[in-house]
Amino acid sequence: MGRYLYDGTSEGLLSAVAHILAGEKDVERVTLVERENTLFEEGVYLATDTAAAEEFFSRLQNLASEAVYTFYYFTMAEKGGLETSMLRYLALALQHGSKVNGYLTHPSVKEIVTVSRKAGRELHRMKGLLRFEKLQDGAYLARMEPDNNIIHPLSLHFSKRLRAEDWFIYDVRRRTAARWHRGSLTLGLIEQFTAPALSEEEKAVQALWKTFFGTIAIPERRNPRLQKSNMPMKYWKYLTEKQG
Predict the structure, then answer these.
(1) End of a domain among 123, 153, 171?
(2) Beta strand pairing status for 140-144 and 184-189?
(3) 3-state SS of the chain: helix, strand, coil percent to 5?
């Protein structure tokens, strides 16, 4: 059984998959893992080849566009130890095209699709649950603690919908932030973060929103289970209507 190592990046993963598929006849007998740089680590290290990664990605787009989205969401999940499953998933994608996501009887396909869909669902959910608060300087801040690393696609989404405003999205768990300022989007790490003061206007708006949220509720139609399904409790921490 062949054992291969890669550098842990998305580009390195695609590059390694391209190399393995070009040289191995049976990927079911191959394993692919992230390099740990230990003294007695076994396996063949495959250095990242940017050109090979781009070529493979383009090929995948042409043959199995659905698999491209699956790979994209998978990278947001930050799930280690699934590289071998991804290798086998992509090999099947090249054979069967976008139909590959329907082959859930294959363990690798089921594993990759399950992880990918969870990340995709969270990204979609946060587009509606993210709350921006107006600060004293006029900018807006939204904080979140998602399970998946979705800040990049989420910030791209809001860069199209809040183009006229200055805003930040802060991922508390990963200490990363996205900033939209004067039509430009930047992402980076934040070592220390202190929540800035809210504007008086924002405080008033939040108070009104809480009152509205409480007033429109119909006691006889309360359905806590459905509410938690649509708005899971793990997101309530930064929802204005759930504070206090």
Answers:
(1) 123
(2) unpaired
(3) 55, 15, 30
Statement to judge: residues 138 and 224 lie in one domain: yes
CA angle in degrees (0–180, nearest 5) for 237-118-125: 45
Q: Which of 158, 133, 147, 122 is nearest to 239 (CA)?
A: 133
Q: What is the domain count for the chain?
A: 2
In angstroms, the CA 118 to CA 125 distance is: 10
C-alpha 85/C-alpha 114 separation (Å) is 12
pTM greater than the 0.85 cutoff: yes
Q: For residues 155 and 218, give the distance between their C-alpha atoms in angstroms, rounded to a whole number.
A: 35
Q: How far apart are CA 188 and CA 203, in angstroms?
A: 28
pLDDT tens for 136-150 read 999 999 999 999 999
Residues 40 and 153 in one domain: no
Please write down the long-range contacts of 108-113, taking CB distance under 8 Å and 24 or more positions apart.
108/84, 111/82, 111/85, 112/70, 112/74, 112/82, 112/85, 112/86, 113/70, 113/89
Digit-coded pLDDT (tens) for 104-130: 999 999 999 999 999 999 999 999 999
pLDDT of residue 40: 81
**How many Å is the Cα radius of gyration of the chain?**
22
Q: Residues 233-236: contacts with CB within 8 Å, 24+ apart?
A: 234/145, 234/147, 235/125, 235/126, 235/129, 235/144
